[in-house]
Amino acid sequence: MNKLIKTSKEHETALERLEELMLGNPVPDSEDANELELLALLIKAYEDKNIVIVPPTPIEAIRFRMEQAGLTQKDLVPLIGTKSRVSEVLAGKRPLTLAMARKLHKGLGIPAEILLEGAFSCTAA
User: Do 38 and 63 fall into the same domain?
Assistant: First the structure.
C-alpha cells in the first residue's frame, strides 16, 4: 500500500500487511523494510486522525496493574491504607487522596495523570 488510508477496511488491510512484513523480519533498506516503514507511517497518520483512545479511569488502571503484577487487595494496603479502605477505593465508594495517588504512582508505576483524573471532586455546600 502506498497511498493514504481513508477507511476502516483499508486500515484493517494495512494492519494485516504490516504484521506480515514484521514477521518476515526484513533486512534494513530492503524493499520490504521500506514498505514496512511507509506502512507504519500511513497507519499512524490514519489512527491519529480517526481513532480516539480513551484513557482508563483510576480504578481501571489500578485493577489492570494488579492483574499484570498478580497483586491482591491486601498488597495495596501499604499504598492506600487499611484493607477496608482499599476495598472502598476499588469499589468506587471512596475517592483517591493525593497521598494515595502518589504512593500508587511510585509503587505501581501508574501514570499520575491517570490517578488524578476525577480525583478530589468536591461538591458545593
Answer: no
Per-residue pLDDT tens over the stretch 4-30:
999 999 999 999 999 999 999 999 999
Place of cell 486500515: 11
Q: Report DSSP letters for 25-78, one per residue.
A: -PPTTSHHHHHHHHHHHHHHHHHHHH-PPPPPPHHHHHHHHHHHHT--GGGGHH
CATH number, domain at 78? 1.10.260.40
Same domain for 65 and 97, yes or no, is yes
Residue 108 CB coordination number (10 Å): 19
Examine residue 77 and state whether it is found in any structural domain, yes or no.
Answer: yes
